[in-house]
Amino acid sequence: MRARAATGSAGATSRTATGAAAAEQAVTGQTATGPAVTRQGATADPAPLPPAPGAEQHVALDFANSELTSRAGRLDLLATPDAATRWLIEHELAPDDAVLYEYCAGRLRELRAQLRVLLASRIDGTLPPAEAVRAVNTALTTAPAASLLHWDEAHGPYRAPAHPADRVAEHAMAAIAADAAELLTGPDGERLAACSASPCNRFLVRTHAARHWCSVRCGDRVRAARAYARRTQQAKRSGE
Ligand SMILES: [Zn+2]
């Protein structure tokens, strides 16, 4: 896995972006649905969005954002077993030689749907359905999420996540669920927000109170839409 050589946050960014691009190609190649939506002469988004604020600290947030809607249409980074496998490997939640089947990819997508419900409830201050809480707890208890202790001559003692060849999805879901529980109950839970640049549906951790956009691109779009609305209003007034 070439991309695994990259380390650090910059590496994580490029890994994610590469994965998104690859998945976009995969999805585009496979489905005729999800056409590029254009409006007001806008063109389809030129490149995948970088991870939303907080997504590099919280894999659960990035996981929730693996289903995204943009002007280019809906993009599901877990749409196929191959895409889901790639996503897990890029996020170091599965070994490089992992193979997922559709059944596992489907369970990942189901956990993601429940996680999105939980994040939305946290943001809205509402009580989520018990089913959504249960989904996280099932993932938490089906496999150990903790990194295990290893000890050898070359490295001394170190911790590494368990990556058994079987139950890859269970271990990945346990790690995601553990992070989700921490995110929802920890200090970043207070700063969770949904991107306000329609149609974007990504979640983010607000870096400051005024920030409600997941990316520069979404912020620019909101500003452009406001400017367009202002111009339209002015044109309407002068035409009256
Ligand atoms: Zn956004």
Automatic annotation (TrEMBL):
<dbReference type="Pfam" id="PF07336">
    <property type="entry name" value="ABATE"/>
</dbReference>
<protein>
    <recommendedName>
        <fullName>Zinc finger CGNR domain-containing protein</fullName>
    </recommendedName>
</protein>
<feature type="domain" description="Zinc finger CGNR">
    <location>
        <begin position="191"/>
        <end position="231"/>
    </location>
</feature>
<dbReference type="InterPro" id="IPR010852">
    <property type="entry name" value="ABATE"/>
</dbReference>
<dbReference type="Pfam" id="PF11706">
    <property type="entry name" value="zf-CGNR"/>
</dbReference>
<dbReference type="InterPro" id="IPR023286">
    <property type="entry name" value="ABATE_dom_sf"/>
</dbReference>
<feature type="region of interest" description="Disordered">
    <location>
        <begin position="1"/>
        <end position="55"/>
    </location>
</feature>
<feature type="compositionally biased region" description="Low complexity">
    <location>
        <begin position="1"/>
        <end position="34"/>
    </location>
</feature>
<dbReference type="InterPro" id="IPR021005">
    <property type="entry name" value="Znf_CGNR"/>
</dbReference>
